[in-house]
């Protein structure tokens, strides 16, 4: 059996999640308000709701993914490009499933319009997630586990 693999702390994951969502909203809210011709406050509330939902899902999803990495003997900040794509794509698929009804209701869209909106946002966010997580891992790498410490 391989030795203990260092994992991100809950505090580190919280920093990741909050900084991820703040930067993402700073980009998406003004763009969404202009595209849907809605006040910033309307899109901002939608964005805040979706961000809180995403943050909660993010914490759970990353915890599960990190544990899977650890069980496989990998450190999360050392994921391969394929591992990063699977991580980002899986998370965005989870968000799509849980966000589609919100877009339909909040923006009064039909199913296909909501799906197109969600897929457009998701496509941007997949690229953003890859870049943000790569930058975060470089700025805040996971320290190797010390001998005798979990």
UniProtKB/TrEMBL annotation:
Membrane spanning stretches: 20-37, 43-64, 85-106, 112-131
Signal peptide residues on this chain, from the entry's feature table: none
Residue ranges of every copy of the Chlorhexidine efflux transporter domain listed in the record: 8-70, 79-141
Domain of life: Bacteria
Entry keyword set: Membrane, Transmembrane, Transmembrane helix
Presence of keyword Lipid metabolism: no
Pfam families the record matches: BTP
InterPro entries in UniProt: BTP_bacteria, PACE
Annotated protein name in UniProt: PACE efflux transporter
Organism: Leisingera daeponensis
């Amino acid at each position: 059996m391989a030795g203990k693999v260092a994992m991100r702390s809950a505090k580190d994951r919280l920093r990741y999640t909050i900084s991820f969502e703040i930067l993402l909203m700073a980009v998406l809210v003004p763009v969404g308000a202009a595209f849907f011709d809605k006040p910033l406050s309307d899109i901002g509330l939608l964005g805040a709701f979706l961000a809180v939902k995403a943050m909660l899902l993010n914490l759970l999803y990353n915890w599960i993914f990190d544990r899977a990495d650890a069980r496989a003997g990998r450190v999360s900040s050392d994921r391969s490009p394929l591992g990063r794509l699977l991580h980002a794509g899986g998370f965005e698929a989870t968000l799509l499933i849980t966000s589609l009804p919100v877009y339909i209701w909040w923006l009064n869209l039909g199913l296909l319009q909501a799906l197109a909106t969600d897929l457009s946002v998701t496509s941007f966010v997949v690229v953003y997630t890859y870049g943000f997580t790569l930058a975060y891992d470089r700025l805040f790498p996971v320290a190797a586990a010390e001998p005798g410490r979990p």
